Automatic annotation (TrEMBL):
Pfam families: NfeD (PF01957). This is Membrane protein. Its main location: membrane. Residues 92-145 form the NfeD-like C-terminal domain. It is a multi-pass membrane protein. The chain crosses the membrane at residues 12-37, 43-69. The lineage of its organism: Bacteria, Pseudomonadati, Pseudomonadota, Alphaproteobacteria, Sphingomonadales. It is found in: Membrane. GO terms for cellular component: plasma membrane. Signal peptide: none annotated. Keywords: Membrane, Transmembrane, Transmembrane helix.
Amino acid sequence: MEWLSLLDDHWGWLVFAALLGVGEVLLPGVFLIWVALAAAVTGLVALILPVPLPVQLLLFSALCLVSVWGGRRWYSSNPVDSQDPLLNDRTARLVGEIVIVVEPIDNGRGRVKVGDGVWSCRGPDAPAGTRVRVIGAEASVLKVELA
């Protein structure tokens, strides 16, 4: 608990904020920056007002909650555009691809070869070897049409 005495001074909070900021740069995750902001504000309050350590810790805790909540809210209303929005949506990436039926589509169900794997599919009846186009997906079942 000796390290807590370092935070009793406003410089301790400001150094803590700087370390958290460096941590955010080295380990990006858009989380530590909000805690660093709370530490910086606590340090500035400790600089301006002579508040005891327990009050500083309560202020820091409250500011952490508010800043993380505000950061999450801001990021949810202002999403970061991706260069590849379908990066983690494999089925959406397959839309438009031509694939080969490996197990005949019978009564609307069959299997198609996609790359080096085989996927379940739904679509018009087709014999094995037929080329079909992926037009969508539901969960891991591809929707296909005759190509």
